[in-house]
Fold:
Amino acid sequence: MDVRVGRRFAAGILGVVLLLGGCSHGMQSGPVTNDNPDVNVLPVNYRPDILAAMHAYLNDPTGVREAGISEPALKVIGGNVRYIVCLRFNARKARNEYAGIKEVAAVFVAGRFDRFAEKPRDQTTFEACADATYAPFPELQKLSR
Structure:
């Protein structure tokens, strides 16, 4: 066997091993808790962060009814342990009609708002917010365009 062919073969095998090792990295059972302690920092200014994000999340941020908010809590969301804040509200659709009560989770990473997570379509309850205790959230009901 030519030395160059042998080296290419060994390099190819090594590449396959590294590729397969990288694929198995995300295949853990159970929730992922990061070793980085800065990832799960209690969000301090979560209310203003959520209000700012709701402007982009809602088609019409005005006239929201029945708004409620929970305190931040560490929960499993998307396979990761993160601080989340549960929201419940009734937002307008088109022509002043209301969509009905919706429940979403505001996900925080490193103490800052990251994204909204919604109940998966195939589930009847939103596990992340199943035990949430809601307090009135009048600031959400006062949003303007």
About this structure: The first helix runs from residue 3 to 24. Confidence is low (pLDDT under 50) at residues 14-30. The radius of gyration is 22 Å. The beta strands are 65-69, 73-77, 80-92, 98-109, 112-118, 135-136.
